[in-house]
Input
Amino acid sequence: MAEIIPLTPGGPSASGEPFKEGACKLHPQTMCPAFGALRVLARIDGAQPAMVTDTGCLYGLTFVTHFYAARKSIVAPALGTAELSSGKVQEAASAAIAEAAREQNVSVIPVISLCVAETAGLAEELLPTEVDGKPVVLVRVPAYAIHSHPEAKDVALSAVMRRFVERAPEPEPGTLVLIGEVFPADPLMIDGVLRKMGGRVLTTLPGRHVDELRLAGRGAAVAALHPFYRDTVGVLREQGVGVVSGAPIGVDGSAAWLRAVGAALDLDEEVVERVAAEEEATARAFLATRPLAGATILVSGYEGNEMLYARLLVEGGAHVPYVSTSIGQSMLTAADEAWLRAHGTEAIVYRKAIEDDKAAMAHWSFDLVIGTTTLAAHAKEHGIPSVYYTNILSVRPLFLSGGMIASLSFVRDLLNRRPLYERMVAFFDDGQ
Amino acid sequence: MAITLIRDISDTSSYWGASWVFGCFPDVHIVCDAPIGCYNLLGMAVTDYTDALPHMANLTPTAIREEDVITGTARALIRTVDDLRSLKLLDGKRLIVLSTAESEMISADHGRLVAQIDPEARFFWSRSLEQDEWVGRERALRFAWEEYGRPFVDPAAPPRPGTVNIIGPSLGCFNAPADLAEVRRLIEGIGGEVNLVYPYEGSVASTPKLAEAAASVVLYREFGEGLAQDLGRPYRFAPFGVFGTTAFLRDLGALIGLPPERVEAFIAREKRTTLQPVWDLWRGPQSDWFATVDCAIVAGRSYVEGLRQFLGEELGMQIAWSSGRPRRDDEPDNIEIRRRLHAKAPAFVFGSINEKIYLAEANARATQFIPATFPGPVVRRTTGTPFMGYAGAAHLMQELVNRFYEMVFNFLPVELVKGTGDRGPQTGDRGQTSRHVEPSTSAETIPWTKEAAERLSAALEQVPYLARISASRSLRLAAEQAARGRGATEVTAEIVEAALQHGA
Output
């Protein structure tokens, strides 16, 4: 690897004062929460979504769904003053469901009820549970109540899970169900390692087919790779499926996770130990180069898995004083938060606003900002290398030693790009 | 009351339209009385992909929460404005508070509250539950004139001769930078002076200046005409095509009192410069294609009328059908557009991502899709892609001819390069016939039944003209190969049908 470009002085902030979050939280940073649900639902083969909402909401959500969820036509009833004031929400939803059911090869009709419809009131008991044998599933995702895009993924996944999961009387021994929208190669890498331990990945959710939801009930255990699938994990727990929390992230995280999975799946302890040790050795060999030593990095996203990424960076030698996310604090976030705080992270902000992130930018000097679009733009205006968290996360593996090497190598390359960012800002921000 | 169904909605609400107008003003800050989703989709997600702006810097939500839905949004609004003030984000700015569908749903009318918070601030009731983006934009433009313009204008002051406003270009308008640049070039070309581009280059402070112009050019038929009428001066719509633009220039010149010889000199110069490629392509073989292909147009009202006029009337292309926005009752809605595109896709489809999806659903590979409207992520920020004016005519013609070339390329047989150790490249569309010394059996003619030939003809009728030769060859090959594979002595209609089902 090339010699790293000189970085800003690391360590605590210049002022020495403790960090304070933004005085106001004016601009919450999250994609529209409902989009998380639409993304999960629109990607299921044969799912024909019916959205119940006003036209502005419909336009925005259809736009982003068509852009980065699925090339899938979306049906909705016109829902304006006339319909709302005459109490036609129920009738409108039913009309959209009927239209959705006319499509060929429909596997499920998710009815996505949004702010306006939820305020008007949509009664689940008055909706059909199926039309011509096509299952109808109501998913309530008013943005005013859900607060973040990842948490709406959980709402959607748990809703279809409740409908389709079938608990097998005898779970398939040694099988693990993965939960989390991950890079497609990640489940394959995890499966490869599990097979060496005598287990395997049964399926990964949210997936592309309702059969995968049915299959989930046959798993011996479930692993929520992302810390916001609370309801979904709850549904599986009710079915008697054992739960492994955390994710195979970095050196510490991967080994601990593999041991926990081994225990949950009742695998041979000696084999598990050997495989976990192998993984750890591969990762440690890579980390011995301390690829990110000396770098101070800000991690801010709205995907809900920011702390996992921050852990990787810290193991790679980076100083990550600040991590922010759109999700709320819960039992599922506790382990990552504790690990980060034990490794030099001073502030972890849940349900963050851009004001929090900008306060962090002012408090520490960063060599790299991995942030939301707004924050990344702000960092670029200051000549700091920065990228949009979602884009860089979604295009490479993250887990186990393979994911670690891919992710850290990429971050290392970004750090070396500082002159490009400085030259741009010098040209465009010339004080005119 | 029957429920109207929507498929892949094309037009957004008046809250969006109004925000896209007010958002252009650097001396305005908008507070939308909205849940975070309405803020994020408009201010960060969608505007990023339609206007290529990282985000709308002058938009802040009240971030309606569950408790606000029950008790009202007044407290959230007061808190938001206080926070904006404490961060000094309102310094030197006029505050405009917009209602949204959700705040209207709970009847959060803050007209009085906004006046108490700040006498200079204004409340805009979006009527988002019943009005679309076009009405919203129009109302926002007229609102800005009534609030920030008219009261500060001397009604007796005469206009400045030779000056023109350009009304309409705002955020969320497809291709606005390029069309604006062309219309500005045309106005200046004949000797006119652009007084104010509104709202794109306007502000609250500059709004009274609208009154100074002798006339206005309204960029879009979808909205803006109302403001032009309120100004009480003559106005014209922006032009399309060679002849449409020429008529416009003479008309506008007369309207604002420019010498006709100056206008004619500009037109003459344009023929030798901007329009030269149109003349050259017209004289070349390329223009012959225009008579053989059809197209469908889904776009804003201006684009639909402009493209019908230029492509249909001036170049002689067949316009299969069109649907403008705002949509008229006699035009197909998206349910019908989807049905038509699935049944028979024209050679060219101008449209939004919706049409692109319908074409993908129908696997209409022989159709060229050209972005002509939102929704859909597309960067249209350079000045080099106009649809309007002379430059628009030249650009469209160039674009269409390049798409013809692309179509031809896509249907040429491919020579697949094989790795070392193979005997050599394979030939044929499907790479299935390899080069042997012996002539292969596929070289022999196999008879077709009458029904099979008729089925082939019927299938080819559905293929755009230009792609027909290639399609007929590949379909014929596929059917004949299938027949040989079955050991049949002739190609039957059933074999053709099977080949069609396999996507031949």
User: Anything to note?
Assistant: Chain A touches chain B through 59 residues (CB under 8 Å). The first strand of chain A starts at residue 50 and ends at 52.
